[in-house]
Amino acid sequence: MLNERDKQRQKRHRKRFEAKIDPSAIVVAFNNHCLNADLFSLIYSMLSDLPDHIRLKTHLYGIDSGDFTDDFMDLGTKTFIDYSVPLHYVKIDGQYELSDHYHAIDILIVTDDNEPGLTTVKSALTAGCSVITNSKNSDRINLNIKERLRISERQCPMELSKHIAALAAQRRKFDCALAS
Description:
alpha/beta; 16% strand; globular; 180 residues
């Protein structure tokens, strides 16, 4: 019988297999309900600032709960052609459970400081993901898992790449989902 930690690992493996993502990839995700207008450009620009050894293992994961299909597809094409970084795109409806996708990802970028953004940050941290967000969100989080939370006040590609590099060095915390 599997313990809870092993069940979490199994869900992660299954979700990555379904998405055709290498098990050793560093999966950086973002979704459009926590999206500001410049995020697609920021994600693209950040890739040039990532160290090569991290960029070569990076896989983007775009979660679309709106009508941003063309934006995600354009970004995926550009990142693959220019940096060999693939983007897994998934379109969901508003009723779909986002936590299913958190199993596949390592780092989630949340730029919105509204209520949906805060809820997304909390649920991703609880699921064991690392999160990059702003201080308005981080100040409202009372979880004991803030070591996987990075603050980015400016929309700066270099700052974002530094946070991703630091978080990529940490192992995924499967027991966070159990402790929260």
